Amino acid sequence: MNVRMVVEVGMLLAALGFGAFAFIRWRRNGIRILDGLGLRGGRAALADFLAGLLIAGVAMVGIFLIESGLSGIRASHDHAVSSAFLLFRQASGMLLTALKEELLMRGLLLSGLVLALRGRLAWAVALSAASFGLIHLCNPGASAMSVFGNALGGLIYGMAFVSSRQLWLSFGLHFGWNFAQGPLIGFPVSGLPAGGLQRLADLGPAWLTGGAYGPEAGLIGICFRFVIIALVVLYLRSRPPWMGRMTGMAGPP
Known about the structure:
Layout: H1 3-28, H2 33-37, H3 43-69, E1 73-76, H4 84-116, H5 121-134, H6 144-164, H7 168-185, E2 199-202, H8 206-209, H9 219-238
Antiparallel strand pairs: 1-2
Helix pairs in contact: 1-4, 3-7, 3-9, 4-5, 4-6, 4-7, 5-6, 6-7, 6-9
């Protein structure tokens, strides 16, 4: 068993363990499992998911434009890597992957941490974000900057989850970031090639663009993580009353 598998299995067991703890507490308090996991459907769920897609997509386009403007990358449209059929397959796979990771890292791990830490949301979100960064440590080309960038992603998704009390916003942000980053624009996704409607040549420096790992490992991508945080807060504070506006990190049930 290699190091990556050990890390992934360990994180899976931690998520399942904290999730089981959350399940027991929810059952004692008469809370439905779907409500605890943040999987309640309806118009609000769709609005949150679409908002996450839009915020992540806008951020990724911003990263592309700035890196192109600084000559950190060069785009070629002569030979697109992805076809329409491949895009559909990639979208389906990334949807399932993002949903799986959000259920494990936010629905189970973060919910359990919130309860185990007796409502200390900042600590729970920080620990789950650090865990999310560390599980990417074994990806190709990973570095201290990539771990920090992925941990910021975990911070964003955790904040979105505990603030909206639903999984859909973090799900949309997660999927939107990955799909726009790889299959649409052509960046690597956490060290892994993911096709693209154009070919991107990374001209570096890697500390600025992220190099072969992708924007998460570069200064520009990391800065845009904070842009996403600001946009998520703005969205949550401007939601219509029927969706519930954010007044702070309320936390899951």
